[in-house]
Amino acid sequence: MAFGASEAPRGTLWHRYEVDERGHVSAARIVPPTSQNQGRIEQDIARSLQRFGLDYNDEALRLRAETVIRNYDPCISCATHFLRLKVQRG
């Protein structure tokens, strides 16, 4: 087994590999910073939207939430595919 960590501006990238007797990787686990920050990002989105005001239209709420996400400097893939906003008004 081998493991490592790489520090980057957005956080620490943890990785672990298992190698078989032929030297081939048989298992790998990669934990990017965005997944480590996921819970905090979600809490900050909720708090920010409540302070912003939930009376805005869906587009304004989505843009506000995306701003919060970008504050964490996620990689482009995480920033692009992170948010699914579902607003229920009743």
Order of helices and strands: EEEHHH
Low-confidence stretches: none
Helix segment tally: 3
**First and last CA, distance:** 53 Å
Task: Please give the structural blueprint.
Elements: E1 2-8, E2 11-19, E3 25-31, H1 33-52, H2 58-71, H3 76-81
Antiparallel strand pairs: 1-2, 2-3
Helix pairs in contact: 1-2
Question: What would you say this structure looks like, in words?
Answer:
The chain has 90 residues and is an alpha+beta fold. It contains 3 helices and 3 strands; from the N terminus they run βββααα. It has helices spanning 33-52, 58-71, 76-81, and strands at 2-8, 11-19, 25-31. The protein has a 3-stranded antiparallel beta sheet. The longest helix has 20 residues, at 33-52. The radius of gyration is 18 Å and the shape is elongated.
List keywords for this structure.
3-stranded antiparallel β-sheet; 3 helices; 26% strand; alpha+beta
Task: Describe the structure concisely for a colleague.
By secondary structure, the chain is of the alpha+beta class. 44% of the residues lie in helices and 26% in strands.
